[in-house]
Design brief:
It contains 18 helices and two strands. By secondary structure, the protein is mainly alpha-helical. Helix 1 runs antiparallel to helix 7 and helix 2 runs antiparallel to helix 3.
Length: 410
């Protein structure tokens, strides 16, 4: 029953989402040898890595609607099986256009979030829904899993082995999901019409949550894709070391999502979102500063100073940013679970689609900025500006009318 919760369903659905997310992020690592093999520029690399994110974003709304109509159990099974096909054939691609087409096909896996979120939420009461959805959302740790697994396979067998192993993993996950998951609860009576489901999108609150999610999830996705390349170009690490260090961002971005859900249950979704934006803004300000050399003319001659983030401090800031984004993702869906319990498929679909579109556009913009400015940290400058605007919008629309982290309203 929904009121009692169902831990086996929560665990197996989270595992399925983890595998889906790892495969969805595949080109973030295998794209590095593919870039060398095909001689791609930074903008082309950004397009290659972002293409799966596009279909993952666009299919979130229809898959969310289908989940409300047909049930998450059935839709998740079909998704896992069908997407294994393009993942397998990605190993045979030899040209950029082939990678882009296959990336569009396998990218539908990114929409698994809009399937699992309403499916899991229906098994838990409202007072535990924030934690449950946060736990499920921790499946974004699949981005870190990809950074551990893919480099090992590339070093041992070549990049072509990665999509083959991932396709088999999807089919094995489909079997586990079929065995341990359960039919959707509380699905009595006829399924609602598409028009009725989409009617909720007229609510302005939905678009406010879209704006939040495009930052925390879009930024998380884009940086998870880009960080292995960043470490190789900025600090000169090999692909294995770069991927392991990049996991310092991707791993907390998934693992701490359950914490974000608990904090949202305890303090409210708005309070958590507000502090997430502030912490992200500070981290991105520090990460934005490029390596700089200063020459100061003194009475005793010129002195040269170098300002640059050492790799340990850069990685520590990424770790904090990953935690902040994780909590922000959870708080956004706490909003949705509390305010749209009967339309979670449609609302989570459109919010997830907007976040995914952010994750699609940002890597392309990263590549364009890098080709234009040739400054690695320009990607953080862009993110800093986006978060700054979001802070102002959040203050104007919410903070002036709501207490933050337990403050008493005057």
């Amino acid at each position: 029953m929904p009121g009692t919760g169902n831990l086996p369903v929560l665990f197996v659905t989270t595992f399925a989402f983890t595998i889906c997310f790892a495969v969805w992020m595949m080109f973030g690592v295998v794209g590095i040898p593919i870039q060398t093999q095909l001689g791609l520029g930074s903008a082309e690399f950004g397009l290659l890595t972002a293409t799966p994110v596009l279909t993952g974003a666009l299919f979130r709304l229809p898959l969310g609607l289908w989940t409300d109509r047909f049930g998450g159990h059935r839709v998740m099974m079909i998704l896992l099986i069908v997407c294994a096909i393009p993942v397998w054939f990605a190993a045979t691609a030899t040209a950029l256009w082939q990678f882009l087409l296959l990336g569009l096909a396998l990218g539908i896996l990114g929409a698994s979030f809009s399937v699992g979120t309403p499916y899991v939420a229906r098994f838990f009461p409202a007072e535990k829904r924030g934690f449950a959805m946060g736990f499920f959302g921790a499946g974004t740790v699949g981005a870190a899993l990809n950074m551990f697994v893919a480099p090992s396979l590339i070093n041992a067998f070549g990049w072509e082995m990665v999509p083959r192993v991932y396709a088999i993993a999807l089919l094995a996950t489909a079997v586990l999901f079929w065995v341990f998951a359960a039919p959707d609860p509380g699905r009595e009576g006829p399924a609602p019409s598409i028009a009725k489901q989409l009617a909720v999108l007229r609510d302005p609150r939905v678009w406010k949550y879209c704006q939040y999610y495009s930052i925390v999830f879009g930024g998380f996705t884009a940086l998870s894709i880009w960080m292995p390349k960043y470490y190789t170009t900025e600090y000169g690490f090999g692909i294995t070391q770069a991927a392991l260090l990049a996991a310092a961002f991707a791993l907390p971005g998934g693992a701490f999502r359950a914490l974000g859900g608990w904090l949202s249950d305890r303090f409210g979704a708005h309070a958590v979102t507000w502090w997430v934006l502030w912490i992200s803004w500070i981290c991105l300000f520090l990460l934005s500063y490029p390596q700089t050399e200063l020459v100061v003319h003194t009475l005793e001659g010129s002195r040269r100073f170098t300002l640059a983030l050492p790799v340990w401090l850069f990685t520590a800031l990424l770790f904090v940013l990953g935690i902040a984004f994780a909590c922000g993702m959870a708080s956004t869906f706490k909003y949705i679970g509390d305010e749209f319990p009967d339309d979670m498929g449609a609302v989570s679909g459109i919010v997830g689609m907007t976040g995914g579109l952010g994750g699609f556009l940002l890597p392309i913009m990263f590549g364009v900025l890098l080709d234009w400015l040739s400054i690695n940290s320009s990607i953080f400058m862009l993110m800093y500006g986006v978060v700054a605007v979001s802070l102002m919008l959040n203050y104007i629309t919410e903070v002036r009318r709501a207490p933050v982290m337990g403050e008493e309203r005057e």
